[in-house]
Amino acid sequence: MTLFEYIESRRDELLLAAAEHAFVVALCILIATIIGVGVGIAAYRRPRLAAFAIGTSGVFLTIPSFALLGLLIPLLGLGWGPTVVALVLYSLLPIVRNTIVGLNGVDGAVVEAGRGMGMSARRVMARVQLPLAWPVILTGIRVSTQMIIGIAAIAAYVAGPGLGNQIFDGLARLGSVNSLNAALAGTLGVILLALAFDLLYLVIRLVTTPGGLRA
Amino acid sequence: MSAERIRRLVAMPAGLAVVLGLLYLWVSGQELDSIERRTLNADYLVTRVTDHLWLTVLATVLVVAIAIPLGVLLSRPAARWLSPVVLALANLGQATPAIGLLVLLTMLFGVGFGIALAGLVLYAVLPVLRNTIVGIQQVDPALKEAARGMGMTRAQVLWRVELKLAIPVILAGLRTALVLAVGVATLATFVNAGGLGDLIVNGIKLNRTPVLVTGGVLTACIALLVDWVGGVAEEFLRPKGI
Predict the structure, then answer these.
(1) Phi and psi (nearest 5°) for B48?
(2) Which residue ranges form the domains of chain B, and what is each CATH number?
């Protein structure tokens, strides 16, 4: 059976795996963005806190994914639990770091002007600082996404969802007819998914960048 | 060196020593059954750690030996048209799941240490190559002009200006390679190449929490230690004045 025939014959199974993969990545990025941007806002004016936040999220990123997934099993069991927690922890560093860098890059005079117009600090953050820092933050989100799409494939070993299951199925049936096709379909699927997400970020960037910042 | 910097350098190994000490106390306080004793003994652990480090170091050396000269070549004017292609490839390579790459290599070429090593090198070579190219490209052209104007030959400009200024970026790439290699080496267990992944897999498959926790914590500590060594190397190998 060629790879093409394999994909044809298991189209539903593969599509479901790809959809699960995309869903778990999107979900984790959403959670990590909420946490990461929140931490960034809290830390960008406090250098010690910023160093601590970046250092801690850097430690998560250094721990090999397979080890972190394994360590989460005694706490969270198998399946979606360890997958989501591990992927969120891995996504944090680029988002936190870029939020801090982005917010620090906003011209102080613009913030002053907003305050002078009578906006509250909260409102200046929401209407001025965050929109101006958004392109930088979005770059961080994109880097995180690309990274965890690949890591999510390993989560299949702890009974997580997604295309990694194809790869491990192929490995488990090493030597049988479709083992190579399964591993290829899983690997290529992950790469295609990463390209699709990248395309999506191009669109998001175009749509969400404030008019004044567009080149 | 300032006290602050020394404190930062010492904090990580000290923290890791505490974590490993706690792990030892916890495991030695457990009543281990025969299955757990089969993996949680000095012999088994030392072999796995040595395999793991050996794989990591070998892969890093190969990556550096391949990626840095290649990056320098690709940044030469004659080959400059190639570098966007390589950068695009590097981005695509980043999206490739390490486990998929290892499994595919195994299916095509068989299991074992050599295949795991090849997988690690393939996986880590692209990011380091990208860093080298970017590091050399970002050297201010005015500086190169000035060096040429002072009468340096092209080779001298490369050695004494471009490479010197690119060292921080190249070192960052080396550190990235180390961390990637130590992480991907945990997956070597899936292609029968040993390493600390063995412990994690045993822990999961046999449902033995002490084995799983020992594997996970040991792997994490070694990765953090390797990253720390990379950080120290960055600190000390950087030319003065940059």
Answers:
(1) -65, -45
(2) 3-237 (1.10.3720.10)
CA geometry: angle at A16 spanning A14 and A20, to 5°?
115
Q: Is the dihedral of CA B4, B6, B10, B12 positive or negative?
A: positive
Min Cα distance A45 → chain B (Å) is 21
| Distance to chain B for A193, nearest Cα, Å | 9
Interface of B with A (CB under 8 A): 91-92, 94-101, 103-104, 106-108, 179, 182-187, 190, 196-197, 200, 203-204, 209, 212-213, 215-217, 219-220, 223-224, 227
Tell me if A67 and B200 make a contact (CB, 8 A cut-off): yes
Residues in A 179-198 with any Cβ partner in B closer than 8 A: 179-180, 183-184, 186-187, 190-191, 194-195
For domain A3-213, say whether CATH 3.60.10.10 is its number. no
- Residue pLDDT, tens place only, A25-45: 999 999 999 999 999 999 999
Three-state DSSP class for A97?
helix
**A172: closest chain B residue by CA:** B190
Q: If you measure CA to CA, which chain B residue comes closest to A51?
A: B8
The full set of domain ranges for chain A reads 3-213
Q: What separation in angstroms does the CA of B115 have from each of B107, B187, B192, B200?
A: 10, 12, 10, 20
ipTM for this model: 0.84
- pLDDT single digits (tens) A80-103: 999 999 999 999 999 999 999 999
